[in-house]
Amino acid sequence: MADYSDKELLELFHSEQASYAFNLLVRKYQKKIYAHVRRIVIDHDDANDVVQNIFIKVWKGLEKFKEDSELYTWIYRISVNESLTFLKKKRTKFFIPIHNIEKEMADKIDVGEHFSGDEIEKKLQKALLTLPEKQRIVFNLRYYDEMPYEEMSKVLGTSVGALKASYHIAAKKIEENLLGN
Amino acid sequence: MEELKNIAPHLSKLPKKDAYTTPDGYFDDLPSMVQDRIVAESNTNKSRILFPRWTLATMGIATMVCIVFFWSQSIDNSKITKEEATAYINETMEQEFDENLLAEELASIDSELTTSEENLEEYILNQDIDEQLLREEI
Hints:
The complex is a heterodimer. Chain A is mainly alpha-helical. Helices cover 75% and strands 0% of the residues of chain A. Chain A has helices at 6-14, 18-41, 44-62, 71-93, 101-111, 119-128, 133-143, 149-156, 160-180. The longest helix of chain A has 24 residues, at 18-41. Chain A is globular, with a radius of gyration of 18 Å. The model of chain A has no long low-confidence stretch (mean pLDDT 90). Chain B is mainly α. The termini of chain B are far apart.
């Protein structure tokens, strides 16, 4: 299957081949978006639900997409919002305020379903769960996706300076956590 | 990487890998799963257009009003007028009233009404009956 640029996909979408174009878009971005979401929500079934929600929002919004930002920036922005919404819903599902969903997600890493990492990798993922959610997202985007701060700023709506600070703090915390263990 | 070496040297040495995996064929199926959900949501939206919520709510209220109205009507119909009741009694009395049955009943009652003279005297005294009037009656 030929790789289409974002511009070509948008042109195809507006040229009465919307479904075909959208199908190509999903195939182009699904692995990246899934990986991004999975690192946030940990569980595969949860990630599957969130990813589908993301692409349905993309479908609904693509007609009106103004191209004042890059397509993948827009998709990533939706991904971040949907992932944070999912975590928020998960917290409010449990009426006991002391319930710790991070502990629940750490337990899922230990179980190892759809997880191929070794013990060090498990420690790293569990260390990431100790970070505040947005800080964890910043770390993931920089460390795993190697996203430039300028693009990250557009995705998250946060200044470059704040993002750099957030990443530095996150990396230090993880380092201390790994050394402590 | 240079950035990370300065902040977290130990972390920078770890091999960077994506340890999260998916079930076999997941990414082959995901596009069609998304399409199926889009179609399903589109059908749900169509039924909402045909029967928007406010229409369904109005229909529900109207149905309740009709039920209450017809129920109250059925209760009113059970009442009959005084004239209707009188006509029924007159008609029924002529057709169904058995005088012989009444006579038999009265006879059985009379036989049960015997009482002693002592009881009768006690009753008269307790009722403060005018003795003069009683003698006149007897």
